[in-house]
Amino acid sequence: MTISLLLEMAVSGNPDRLALVSDDVRLTVGELNALADGCAGALVGSGPRTVAYVGTGGVMLPLLIFASARAALPFSPLNYRLSGEALRELIDRLDEPLVVCDSEYRDVAEDAATKIIESQDLLSAARTSNPVSLFPDPDDVAVLLFTSGTTSRPKAVELSHNNLTGYVTGTVEFDSAAPDDAVLICVPPYHIAGVSAALSNLYAGRKMVYQRNFEPKDWIRLVNAESVTNATVVPTMLNRIVTELERNPVPVPTLRSLAYGGSKVAPPLLRKALELLPDVGFVNAYGLTETSSTIAVLTAQDHRAAQTATDEMVRKRLASVGQPVPGIEVEIRGDDGEVLDRGQVGELFVRGPQVSGRYAEIGSVLDENGWFPTRDSAMLDQDGYLFITGRADDTIIRGGENVAPAEVEDVLVEHPAVREVAVVGIEDPEWGQIIAAVVVPEYGTTPDPEELRDHVRKALRGSRTPDRVVFRQQLPVTPTGKVLRRELVNDLTGERAGR
Amino acid sequence: MIKTGTRLRSQVCDTQVIVVRASERLDDLRAGGVPMLPLDAEIAGGATLNPEFSGGTLMGKRYVDESGAEVLVTKAGAGALSVGEEPLTLKEAKPLPASD
């Protein structure tokens, strides 16, 4: 099944429904469909083999996703925050790309690519070009996304039409949204959540309201201006929304569901958010670029049950990512590849139609039975709730003992003077690696390193006590909230060398 | 055997489907009591909708038979789906919260 068919179905369902709002642009499903046909015509006319995009999205994202599909070309949205040089490195890896760019990124795009067109010019061309609707093979690449590369060079993940439609039709019921449903989309277009939001909300029949540059005050304003019922945020956004609501409480009466994902949300932040927005259902979505978005969901009911439970196992589920979505199988495997029992920590493997596990230049990394190694350490509880305990690559080995940074972070973040924390391993001649905790203090506090070490020592074994505690104003993170651990390690290693 | 991903259309109503899970039995998939044809096939005309299979199809819904075959309705129509004379049944989906 191709992603074009998702749009055709939406048209067949109700062409006059308002599909999206982006600044002053408002498009019905039928208008989006006609524009995508014309845009496909304009794309095909310039003869590329890939369509890339450098910009903040809005109407351009769904338009380019569907127009590229109808032009039978892979679509690759790129990180518009990258430097010209970093962008060029990515563009050089694409097959004869046409780079569509918002006007404010024209200079960067011009440095990085030979064939470019501005978004506004493409939109004009789309309105006058002959419509085109080709039929790509459903196993062809529909979307190519670069991973954020927190630990290594970005990898180019290939998502086929079948992967993406498998995800949408497997997890979303067609036209299931209520007539007044509206979703606020503020995740960046080059992130899998941006791509999946454009597809699944259109399929569900939910009006899409775009915020092209996230800003918490404006986010709250948009929720009320467009009567937004649903939204998805990454942890850094949730943090900023909570801070804004604490400073300046504004009711958001239409908001019913707030999904969060992208990286781990610290429990104190989540508890604060739940308190501030008691009428909002919180949904934790866990997924990877390689799995075409969400593979496990902790529902609003799960959140409420965990909040009020007396049973320790149910209470802990506030930190879980919930249960696998339909169509996804999960296994936790040990170091020797054996499948582990519930309650044991190992590497998470997943399988299903939405799982790609295929990279440009590398090929498929699925095993012979179609399982994808996520490189995430995880555990299933007795009822099948999934807990992510960290990235396998982040494990610190101190004096031969494995330490998961998340284990130490979970303890430290509960200290009242700790706002955010990242724990990393630094090379050490004596221990191999030592444990360093990088702490962002709570506003107005100056925590004592010894006290924080003590706090960890009381909760965990002594070998997990941070050897060093350092303070920072903020942590280096990707736009979706993943901590750039490599930067912290480089930073701290430099300090040790006597910088 | 019909393959997963194949798109079919009715000869007697607007119904179109895509095969989500194939099974040999789908070779005799009918809409409105009349065999469905590939999307790009010529329709001879003359066939009429069998009143016994006039319950209609619902847009975006999945239909299954007991062999595990599954189709998704990509365009709704007046005829009902069946394998031979045996009606397909509507697959009830467990509602998931929106996460995108």
Overview of this structure, please?
The complex is a heterodimer of chains A (about 500) and B (about 100). By secondary structure, chain A is of the alpha/beta class. Helices cover about 35% and strands about 25% of the residues of chain A. Chain A folds into 3 domains: about 5-300, 3-Layer(aba) Sandwich (Rossmann fold); about 305-390, Roll (Luciferase, domain 3); about 395-495, GMP Synthetase, Chain A, domain 3 (2-Layer Sandwich), CATH 3.30.300. Chain A contains 16 helices and 26 strands. In chain A, the strands form 7 sheets. Chain A has a 9-stranded mixed sheet, with helices on both faces. A 4-stranded parallel sheet of chain A has the order 4-3-5-6, with helices on both faces. In chain A, a hairpin with a 2-residue loop joins strand 22 (about 395-400) and strand 23 (about 400-405). The radius of gyration of chain A is 23 Å and the shape is globular. Chain B has no helices and 10 strands. With about 100 residues, chain B is mainly beta. Chain B has one domain. Chain B has strands at about 5-10, 15-20, 30, 35, 35-40, 60-65, 70-75, 80-85, 85, 90. In chain B, a hairpin with a 2-residue loop joins strand 8 and strand 9. Chains A and B meet through helix 1, helix 7, helix 8, strand 13 and strand 14 of A and strand 7 of B.
